[in-house]
Design goal:
The protein is an alpha/beta fold and 471 residues long. The protein has helices at residues 5-21, 92-98, 153-170, 191-205, 223-227, 231-237, 243-253, 263-276, 328-337, 340-346, 374-382, 400-409, 450-453, 455-467; strands at 31-34, 48-56, 61-68, 79-83, 102-104, 116-118, 128-132, 142-143, 151-152, 179-184, 211-217, 366-367, 387-392, 414-423, 426-434, 438-443. Helix 3 packs across helix 4, helix 4 (191-205) runs parallel beside helix 11 (374-382) and helix 7 (243-253) packs antiparallel against helix 8 (263-276). The two termini are 39 Å apart.
Length: 471
């Protein structure tokens, strides 16, 4: 549900005041096994657990998670830690929209509590997945102190390391499972950093993490240096701007579209923005609806990749949701997670989060103190950990153009050159493998994010990569 900044700030302060002064709930039961969920017809066909892990005792920071055991062989299948982007989007979006075994029934929604249904092309077919609400303030994660709400990229990685320590201590049977750090979008800034922290913990402290690699989908990696600067060549490559406008912009701006060096460059960038202003940046094949994944381009040099909630607030009980818009599912997630019976079923501590948002409001203080994740990719792959980096080829937010550019900057040699990969007998995308065991893949026809748009193909891609087979 979209709220004004004044409303979200008020809700945030009410939550914090309740936590500081009242605190009627107990912290004894941190885990809950769930067999049924409101809105789902019948018992769940998979094992679901929810719970909290305290990751900062001094500041009272509690991260909420959903855990789904592998539907194939949980004793032997890999364990994935899944991070949703934002920063500050709830992992419920991973569970019920992106890679998990649930989905919201948008097409049949009329009013009241949204229905959810089982999605067979889930990554839980081949792996167990921990979906964690991170950073604090995302989803149902919260802090009992004012200081705890303040966080950053580096602090988020540190808290996630603590989360894994404690979660595995509470779930010792998964300690020996192969561990992979995974996620999408802005999580691309955190994934390699966390992987490096885990590797260092293993090397210096003998930490019992069975880390075997990491994967990042449609990842933000170096927002100012690569991600935003790739938009103009991406627009041209996808036929969204003319050859003449592209060549003139490229010449006048000298290939630097983030910091216009002269008034003529700024003029051409304005022309690019004007031509592409009504394109869905998250998925250029689909209608622009103005929501989480389809913000307007605005001015390329000044844009930030944040949660921009443009969908007009639609009241619960209304059938006015734009069902032609994929991102309307984010609105359904707001309806669902703010329902009292849902919260009771999930084991949510009363009073901790007054109004749940699919992506956290900007009043929760967050510092982006990692400007480029590229050096961390170099460090972790140099340590021998495999990486899978994949991009939906119709995503303009974190385009395959920018991803290929930062991978090239690593100067890894090509081991297996550009070729198609297949799913169901059809070309599902293209892939290239580099030294340091880094695999890059596009997902044909997918947007931001790839697994949401092409679940069957992405499941096939994941299964092959986890097994060590070529895509």
């Amino acid at each position: 549900m979209a709220y004004s900044q004044q409303e979200t700030k008020k809700c945030f302060l009410i939550s914090l005041l309740f936590l500081l002064c009242c605190s009627p709930w107990q912290l004894v039961s941190a885990r809950k096994r769930i067999d049924n969920l409101p809105g789902f017809d019948g018992p769940l066909p998979f094992a679901l657990e929810t719970g909290y892990v305290e990751v900062d005792e001094d500041k009272g920071v509690e991260l909420f998670y959903y855990f789904v055991e592998s539907e194939r062989n949980p004793e032997e299948d890999p364990l994935l830690l899944w991070l949703t982007g934002g920063p500050g989007c709830s992992s419920l979006l991973g569970l019920a929209i992106e890679i998990g075994p649930l989905n919201f029934d948008l097409q049949n929604y009329e009013n009241g509590l949204p229905s959810i249904y089982y999605k067979p092309d889930s990554w839980t077919q081949v792996s167990s997945v921990i979906f964690v609400d991170s950073p604090v303030g995302a989803g149902f994660s919260y802090s009992r102190t004012t200081e705890g709400w303040q966080t950053s990229d580096t602090e988020t990685a540190r808290r996630l390391l603590h989360f894994l320590y404690k979660w595995l201590e509470e779930h010792p049977k998964f300690k020996s499972n192969r561990l992979y750090i995974s996620g999408s979008s802005y999580a691309g800034m955190i994934i390699p950093v966390l992987a490096v922290e885990i590797a260092i913990a293993k090397e210096s402290h003998g930490a019992q993490f069975n880390l075997k690699g990491y994967l990042a989908g449609n990842p933000m990696t170096d927002i100012e240096g690569f991600d935003k600067n790739a938009k103009v060549p991406y627009f041209h490559g996808m036929g969204l701007i003319s050859d003449e406008l592209y060549e003139s912009t490229k010449k006048i701006c000298s290939g630097n579209y983030m910091s216009p060096s002269n008034i003529h460059c700024a003029k051409y960038l304005d022309a690019v923005n004007e031509v592409t202003k009504d394109i869905n940046m998250g998925y250029i094949l689909e209608p622009y609806c103005g929501s989480v994944n389809s913000p307007r381009p605005d001015q390329i040099p000044s844009r930030t990749i944040e949660r921009m909630s443009y969908i007009e607030e639609v009241p619960l009980g209304s059938s006015r949701l734009p069902k032609e818009c994929r991102d309307a599912k984010y609105q359904l997630s707001d309806f669902w997670a703010n329902n009292g019976t849902v919260r009771d079923a999930l084991g949510i501590r009363k009073g901790t989060i007054v109004d749940w948002n699919s992506c956290t409001n900007l009043d929760v203080p967050y510092t982006k103190d990692i400007h480029s994740a590229v050096p961390y990719h170099r460090i972790i792959t140099n340590k021998g950990y495999p990486a899978l980096i994949y991009s939906g080829d119709h995503d303009a937010l974190a385009s395959f153009i920018s991803t290929q550019a930062w991978i090239r900057s690593l100067n890894f040699s090509i081991v297996d050159d550009w070729r198609p990969w297949y799913s169901g007998g059809q070309v599902a995308g293209f892939t290239r493998k580099y030294s340091n065991n880094l695999t890059f893949a596009t997902v044909k026809g997918a947007g931001h994010t790839a697994a949401e748009c092409k679940p069957r193909e992405c499941l096939a891609m994941l299964d092959r990569w986890l097994s060590g087979a070529p895509l």
